[in-house]
Amino acid sequence: MAVVRYFAAAQDAAGRGTERRGERTLGELRRAVAEEHPGLGGILPRCAVLVGGARVDDATELGADELVDVLPPFAGG
Prior knowledge:
- This protein is α+β, with helices and mostly antiparallel strands.
- The protein has two helices and five strands, in the order βαβαβββ.
- It has helices at residues 8-14, 26-36, and strands at residues 2-6, 18-21, 48-51, 54-55, 67-71.
- It has a five-stranded mixed sheet.
- It is globular.
């Protein structure tokens, strides 16, 4: 199962900092978390979603204990 870590506004929207997920691909995971955490629906399309520290496409398969980070856009400089 993948470990999803939510940061900043994504954490607030999900109501948690981490969770374990069983989806097979990143695209399946995106759809499932947006459905289960409606607050994420508005910000998820703008978030950087990293798998193992890298940006990948939605067809990417998620391995056991894969680390997925959901990072909303950050302001400041």
